[in-house]
Write a structure and sequence with these properties.
The structure is a single chain. The chain is α/β, with parallel strands linked by helices and 152 residues long. It contains 5 helices and 5 strands; from the N terminus they run αββααβαββα. The chain has helices at residues 2-21, 47-50, 57-69, 87-96, 137-151; strands at residues 28-33, 39-44, 77-83, 100-105, 130-133. Strand 3 (77-83), helix 4 (87-96) and strand 4 form a beta-alpha-beta unit. Helix 1 (2-21) runs parallel beside helix 5. The radius of gyration is 14 Å and the shape is globular. The chain starts with a helix and ends with a helix.
Length: 152
């Protein structure tokens, strides 16, 4: 099962590296069908490109998959993302009813899953997916570290 998890996360890492070239914070995401393993959507942050503070990788792939499938609930979908989702993205994940979230680097400053408001642990949370953090953590963190170091 580890190899099945590593492949989508490696793709998310490729997408994060692509984001760097676009001047975006390097976060990549891949949303797959948990049953078949088919890719439902993939992308990276487009906040700067679209001049949209909500254009986080997680929201973009959820929007794309929901539109493609013609439904708002994606109960069998698994999200692979290179950084712990922020509170906004965690709430969208809950609303979309994603089955699982795999993330790479932890985000003590801006995270909303294992840090900050811990959205999925709140009594007002509609749905809490299974969460697995730290997948390819070192590689995911290094892409972010290098990006921010180059900007200083």
């Amino acid at each position: 099962m580890a190899n099945e998890r590593e492949s989508p996360m490696r793709r998310a890492l490729e997408l994060a590296r692509t984001a760097v070239a676009a001047g975006e914070v390097p976060v990549g995401a891949v949303l797959i069908d948990g049953g078949s393993g088919a890719v439902l959507a993939e992308g990276h942050n487009l906040v700067e490109t679209q001049h949209d503070p909500t254009a986080h990788a997680e929201l973009l792939v959820i929007r794309e998959a929901a539109a493609r499938l013609g439904r708002t609930r994606l109960e069998q979908a698994d999200l692979y993302v290179t950084l712990e989702p922020c509170p906004m993205c965690a709430t969208a994940i809950s609303f979309a009813r994603l089955r699982r979230v795999y993330f790479g680097a932890y985000d003590p400053k801006g995270g909303g899953v294992d840090h900050g408001p811990r959205i999925f642990e709140q009594p007002t949370c509609h749905h809490a997916p299974e969460v697995i953090g730290g997948l390819e953590e070192t590689a995911c963190a290094e892409v972010l570290r290098a990006f921010f170091q180059a900007r200083r």
